[in-house]
């Protein structure tokens, strides 16, 4: 008799509910933080999205840090707990990548054992974060703690995931706690603390003027200079602009400055992830 709350039963409920598929406001994570559902290790959080009108299920403190950084790269969508296909390619990618493999085929090609659940059926693997850019290209991020990253089995699973997204034209990154120093996290959390009702749409010229006025000032002083008439609205608008990559500043600095460009720009003038990629193994 199948157990009601076995991993297989919970997987089946998630698939039947359409979780781990879709996009935008309607998306829901395959793995959620509710009791008796698929879970993960570490501190969980249910946080509002900076991009869509929904909340994110973050299953560890590391995932929360990663999710804070993703809007900096100006994606049009970020999906957490994305459910990977066991066989073949999902509808979303079928037209462009009709021969993309599922996790079972990739594991077999690599000579790895595919994860299974209690009943011996295949475990449905997930990607921590799938970010979609304006040109509909994707990059994906997997969060792993340093103490786990050298484990051989962990690296096998990451490689399955890496090839899965390469088959779909994406770039896969691995982020660990070493990518997030305390200053960076503090600054990201401060920027994400804006009140949505105060955020205003400002033209690009306004941001250029702000940068000119504040070029030699720490961020807090710059806010005082430009926000005399409506302090709260200006502060929250600027926080939102930094948190979503419209204003780029040195988020590693204890005193944020407007004139420091970080993270690095790629050759198209876009921000690129500073996370690592798992080195190829022999």
Verbal overview:
This protein is α+β, with helices and mostly antiparallel strands and 282 residues long. The chain has 2 domains: 7-179, Trna Endonuclease, Chain: A, domain 1 (3-Layer(aba) Sandwich), CATH 3.40.1350.10; 181-269, no CATH class. The protein has 10 helices and 6 strands, in the order H-E-E-H-E-H-H-E-E-H-H-E-H-H-H-H. It has helices at residues 7-16, 61-69, 91-94, 103-110, 146-149, 152-167, 182-191, 204-214, 219-226, 231-243, and strands spanning 45-48, 55-58, 77-83, 126-132, 138-143, 171-175. Helix 4 (103-110) packs across helix 6 (152-167). The longest helix is centred in the middle third of the chain and has 16 residues, at 152-167. It is globular and about 60 Å long. Mean pLDDT is 77; it is low at 35-41 and 258-265.
SSE map:
Layout: H1 7-16, E1 45-48, E2 55-58, H2 61-69, E3 77-83, H3 91-94, H4 103-110, E4 126-132, E5 138-143, H5 146-149, H6 152-167, E6 171-175, H7 182-191, H8 204-214, H9 219-226, H10 231-243
Helix pairs in contact: 4-6
Provide key terms for this protein.
282 residues; alpha+beta; Trna Endonuclease, Chain: A, domain 1; four-stranded mixed sheet; two-stranded antiparallel sheet; 10 helices; 12% strand
Q: Would you summarize the structure shown here?
A:
The chain contains 10 helices and 6 strands. It is α+β, with helices and mostly antiparallel strands.
């Amino acid at each position: 008799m199948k157990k009601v709350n076995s991993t297989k039963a919970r997987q089946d409920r998630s698939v039947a509910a359409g979780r781990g598929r879709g996009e935008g406001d309607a998306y829901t994570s395959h793995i959620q933080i509710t009791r008796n559902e698929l879970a993960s290790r570490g501190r969980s959080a249910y946080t509002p999205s900076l991009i869509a009108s929904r909340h994110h299920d973050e299953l560890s403190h590391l995932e929360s840090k990663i999710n804070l950084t993703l809007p900096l790269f100006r994606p049009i969508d970020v999906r957490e707990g994305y459910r990977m296909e066991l066989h073949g390619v999902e509808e979303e990618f079928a037209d462009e990548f009709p021969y993309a493999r599922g996790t079972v085929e990739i594991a077999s090609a690599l000579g790895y054992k595919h994860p299974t659940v209690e009943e011996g059926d295949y475990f449905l693997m997930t990607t921590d974060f799938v970010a979609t850019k304006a040109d509909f290209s994707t990059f994906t991020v997997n969060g792993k703690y340093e103490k786990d990253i050298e484990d051989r089995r962990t690296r096998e699973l990451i490689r399955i995931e890496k090839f899965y997204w390469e088959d779909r034209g994406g770039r896969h990154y691995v982020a660990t706690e070493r990518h997030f120093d305390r200053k960076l996290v503090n600054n990201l959390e401060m920027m994400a603390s804006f009140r949505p009702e105060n955020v205003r749409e400002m033209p690009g010229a306004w941001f250029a003027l702000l940068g000119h006025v504040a070029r030699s000032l720490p961020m807090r002083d710059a806010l005082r200079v430009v926000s005399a008439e409506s302090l709260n609205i200006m502060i929250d608008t600027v926080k939102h602009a930094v948190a979503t990559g419209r204003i780029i500043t040195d988020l590693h600095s204890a005193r944020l400055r407007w004139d420091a460009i970080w993270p690095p720009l790629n050759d198209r003038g876009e921000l690129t992830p500073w996370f690592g990629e798992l080195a190829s193994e022999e």
